[in-house]
């Protein structure tokens, strides 16, 4: 009889083996599905980018041929949703310009193409709030193939070449293809593979341990009966392969469902198309083959004692004590991680960072059992109850098996502590150095265009019946010598207080002058229109008055009143600014956008929109990842606890037969599960914080990590999950008591 047929016979005849195989297959399916999903995320962002690269200027297209198109891209907002505006003007025959997929025609001057969702919004609002921003007639809609994500708000606006914004770039047609993967999602996917695949494999290992003792005795008997090591390995491989291969195929079959669910999770402002998550076969097939291969390898490596010492397996001889050198694995892995983090600069450096993270995670498998054994030794010396003595003997006798129940929980705590350290630190980075108040909309431009934008904006605002008016705020340079200088805004005191994040209380009294946050000595100070140009000296008697900055993240600036601006100094850079209210913000934005003709409209809230969107994405991904890790770790802990009871059916059956109360044994099992988990989770929390500090340094080198009391939450929850999972020991013990010992 070959090994495969023997494995099928065992599965048919042994209910416990079938249960273990089913759970193992489910664990492999979960692991395979998660890995396929996580690996597909960078490819999904690349697919997004392939559809939307045309929306950005192609700065590298100058080498492809003569410029045929002038293109400017800017961002606008409506009701908190971002609008991508693309302004184009042909520099040659429009018919010779290749159009991106989903763009039916190149809009002529005065024509606009809108995405379906933007067209729907524009139809449902008054023109003064949205539709009139684009300065043309809507002549069509963009297709799905032209949108980064479903529901993206995009406007393609046609112009004459002379009417393009100052930021327009001349290029050889639209940028088509050449998109790159999102580096942030690449990093998150890599971290996710490391921190989620391990709980999945622990779940697989815990499922296999449900019949570990019975399988080990069966295989040892076969070895003593004359079976060769090769035959034993073949039998176990066949038995494991049925569950592992079946689970891998199930995970691959279920991956489209996971991908479908992932399309509803927003990232970078929107959701996904279903086709975004299609993995290349060259990536998907190795993943599907790798998962059962890892399970088979682990199963074969677990046969060392059966193959070489079958008598020891059948007699359950005492295991060798663990060596102290296991403790060195964690600091060595931490040292490697610290080195690669401090030197990571390119894609290979990031791969080494992920390798260092994986080594830290793997080191827990070496350190955890040693800590478990040490706790067992302490219990054996200080016991006051029989349950504590029993728990201590178990932890000391089989620390690897005892630690297995808390391995998934430890990793979940490590991940949670890392995430709850990084998130507040990332949130502390959010902000904007803009000097303008949150309610002010403004357009940086040059002096020539500023005058026209101000006039057209004010005319439109008057037509809309609004009281607010646009003004031009010039920028000059106050310099003293060749190596020192400071930017200054040309603005009178009262308007400065209304537009800027400044407290000018008391500074506006008296004659006009220069206003500064810091004391200034104007002797020898000159005023120039631009950096590096010849300046005109300020009068020595020009007063300097102080103001206070009301925004912590605002960069230092000075104010110079137009009345004291020296003759001959005319600002070349001007910012057109318009104050708004909550009620008329969309109307004012429409008036300014129509006048700006595609120039970028800015505001402080718009500057931090991308930051807040990214933070929301990170929070969402963190919550999903932590929930998945907690569920997987809780299931693996529960199965491992039940497996530990099954492994010791003879021992517990004998104890129960000798009169030991089930409640004492249950208390012993809860103790042996909870105490190592508590100690290990505290250590995992500390290591998670340290790793988070290292990862944060990859993003921000100057600021420090923000630590909050929430970093202790994973430790508390992890210990709670371990105790809750250990509660399955009571039903398992009752089952042992109900079954006759002769079954063993």
TrEMBL record:
Family matches, as Pfam families: FtsX
Region (Disordered): 50-78
Domain (ABC3 transporter permease C-terminal): residue spans on this chain: 193-302
Cellular localization per UniProt: Cell membrane
Keyword Membrane attributed: yes
InterPro entries assigned to the protein according to its UniProt record, in alphabetical order: ABC3_permease_C
UniProt protein name: FtsX-like permease family protein
Coiled-coil annotated spans: none
Keywords (A to Z) from UniProt: Cell membrane, Membrane, Transmembrane, Transmembrane helix
Domain of life, source organism: Bacteria
Transmembrane spans: 21-44, 187-211, 232-257, 277-303, 324-344, 350-380, 401-423, 621-642, 677-698, 710-729
Keyword Mitochondrion: no
């Amino acid at each position: 009889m070959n090994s495969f047929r023997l494995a099928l016979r065992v599965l048919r005849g042994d209910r416990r083996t079938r249960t273990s195989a089913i759970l193992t297959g489910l664990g492999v399916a979960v692991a395979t599905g998660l890995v396929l999903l996580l690996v597909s995320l960078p490819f999904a962002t690349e697919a997004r980018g392939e559809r939307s690269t045309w929306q950005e200027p192609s700065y590298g297209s100058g080498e492809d041929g003569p410029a045929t198109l002038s293109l400017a891209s800017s961002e606008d907002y409506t009701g908190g949703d971002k609008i991508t505006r693309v302004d184009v003007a042909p520099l040659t025959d429009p018919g010779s310009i290749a159009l991106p997929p989903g763009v039916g025609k190149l809009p002529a001057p005065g024509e606009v193409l809108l995405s379906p969702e933007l067209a729907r919004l524009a139809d449902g609002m008054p023109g003064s709030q949205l539709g009139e921003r684009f300065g043309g007639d809507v002549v069509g809609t963009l297709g799905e193939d032209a949108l980064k994500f479903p529901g993206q708000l995009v406007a393609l606006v046609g112009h004459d070449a002379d009417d393009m914004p100052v930021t327009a770039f001349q290029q050889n047609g639209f940028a088509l293809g050449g998109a790159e993967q999102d580096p942030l999602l690449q990093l998150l996917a890599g971290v996710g593979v490391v921190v989620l695949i391990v709980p999945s494999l622990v779940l697989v290992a815990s499922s296999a341990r449900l019949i570990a003792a019975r399988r080990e005795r069966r295989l040892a008997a076969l070895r003593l009966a004359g079976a060769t090591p090769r035959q034993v390995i073949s039998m176990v491989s066949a038995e494991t392969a049925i569950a592992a291969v079946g689970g891998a195929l199930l995970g691959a079959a279920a991956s489209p469902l996971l991908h479908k669910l992932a399309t509803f999770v927003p990232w970078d402002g929107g959701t996904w198309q279903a086709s975004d998550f299609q993995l290349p076969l060259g990536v998907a097939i190795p993943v599907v083959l790798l998962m059962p291969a890892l399970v088979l390898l682990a199963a074969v490596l677990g046969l060392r004692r059966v193959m070489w010492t079958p008598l020891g397996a059948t007699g359950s001889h005492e295991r060798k004590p663990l060596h102290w050198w296991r403790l060195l694995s964690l600091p060595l892995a931490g040292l490697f991680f610290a080195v690669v983090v401090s030197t990571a600069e390119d894609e290979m450096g990031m791969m080494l960072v992920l390798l260092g993270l994986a080594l830290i995670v793997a080191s827990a498998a070496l350190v955890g059992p040693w800590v478990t054994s040490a706790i067992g030794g302490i219990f054996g010396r200080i016991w006051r109850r029989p349950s504590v003595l029993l728990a201590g003997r178990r932890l000391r006798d089989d620390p690897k098996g005892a630690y297995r129940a808390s391995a998934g929980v430890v990793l979940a705590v490590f991940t949670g502590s890392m995430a709850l350290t990084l998130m507040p630190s990332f949130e502390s980075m959010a902000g904007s150095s803009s000097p303008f108040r949150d309610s002010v909309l403004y357009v940086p431009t040059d002096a020539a265009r500023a005058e026209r934008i101000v006039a057209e904006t004010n005319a439109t605002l008057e037509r809309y019946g609004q009281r607010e008016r646009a003004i031009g705020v010039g920028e000059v340079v106050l310099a003293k010598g060749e190596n020192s200088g400071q930017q200054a805004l040309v603005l009178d005191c009262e308007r400065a207080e209304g537009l800027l994040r400044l407290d000018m209380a008391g500074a506006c009294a008296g004659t006009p002058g220069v206003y500064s946050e810091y004391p200034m000595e104007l002797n020898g100070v000159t005023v120039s229109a631009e950096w590096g140009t010849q300046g005109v000296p300020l009068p020595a008697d020009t007063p300097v008055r102080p103001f206070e900055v009301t925004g912590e993240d605002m960069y230092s600036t000075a104010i110079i009143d137009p009345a004291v601006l020296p003759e001959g100094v005319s600002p070349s850079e001007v910012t057109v600014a318009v104050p708004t209210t909550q009620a008329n913000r969309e109307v004012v934005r429409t008036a300014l956008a129509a006048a700006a003709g595609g120039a970028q409209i800015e505001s402080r809230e718009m500057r931090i929109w991308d930051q807040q969107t990214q933070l929301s994405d990170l929070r969402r991904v963190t919550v999903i990842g932590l929930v998945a890790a907690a569920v997987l770790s809780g299931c693996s802990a529960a199965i491992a606890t039940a497996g530990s009871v099954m492994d010791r059916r003879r021992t517990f059956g004998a104890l129960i037969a000798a009169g030991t109360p089930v409640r004492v044994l249950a208390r012993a099992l809860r103790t042996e599960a909870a105490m190592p988990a508590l100690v290990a989770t505290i250590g995992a929390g500390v290591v998670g914080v340290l790793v988070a500090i290292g990862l944060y340094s990859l993003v921000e080198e100057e600021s420090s990590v923000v630590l909050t009391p929430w970093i202790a939450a994973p430790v508390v929850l992890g210990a709670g999950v371990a105790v809750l999972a250990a509660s399955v020991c009571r039903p398992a013990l009752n089952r042992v008591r109900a079954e006759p010992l002769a079954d063993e």
